[in-house]
Specification:
By secondary structure, the chain is α/β, with parallel strands linked by helices. Helices cover 44% and strands 16% of the residues. It contains eleven helices and eight strands. Helix 1 packs parallel to helix 2, helix 1 packs across helix 11 and helix 3 runs antiparallel to helix 11.
Amino acid sequence: MKTGLVLEGGAMRGLFTAGVLDVLMERGVKFDGLVGVSAGACFGCNYKSGQIGRVIRYNKRFANDPRYCSWRSLLATGDLFGVEFCYRTLPLELDVFDAKTFEANPMEFHVVATDCKTGKSVYKRLDKADERTFDWIRASASMPLVSRPVAIDGGLYLDGGLSDGIPLRYFESLGYERNVVVTTRPRGYRKFPKRLMCFLKPLLHRYPAIYEALKSRHVWYNNTLEYIDERVASGHAILIAPDEPLQISRVCHDSAVMQRVYDMGRKAGEKAELTFV
């Protein structure tokens, strides 16, 4: 029986997930596979590399560095999160990602991105800690309007959260019968249709499928939450979620707020009863 770890995104809400993951690593909890979306992919890769504390450390260290995340970066490059800094300089020089441990760890690592042409989910298993893997992680986390689509193998991709924000069904389709699901919204949360979608349409005129994905996102997202509840009730899944809204914006430069959200994740991880892991 394969056990999986399913990680939602949510930009800086993902620091809650980072807190949960650090506790699980400290407890020595092993999974056969992990699938992450957006921040769940960016931060979840550290589970495979075994780097406890790395996520909160570099986020606080570079919280106010314009190379990391800034409107200046968006205006200059088209990416709110600086590509060269976040996916090259930081992991290769400033807070080095442990590529050797990542590749030696037998746990599968999967990410989700959204195809700009079709608006559909694309799932990738990544075994090597190389430039192509970082490109897929970046694609999974590239929010529309504040990120350029990521070109990989002839396709263009954006945030996986547009098409499959909590890919439990995907992991079950691969034979992961028992899964721990970490969300960054409280239990009982439900999405509503986005307001003012008409204003987004011209901004996304080059990618109509992305606009359609955004317009219908609340429908499949709420359906997924209901499915998770069913799987938890049947004993096939364990849900770890905040007890209350995290009160952090998608972009945050306040290290104290970052630490608070991370600590909330640690508390949730500490009290989680992982009965089948």
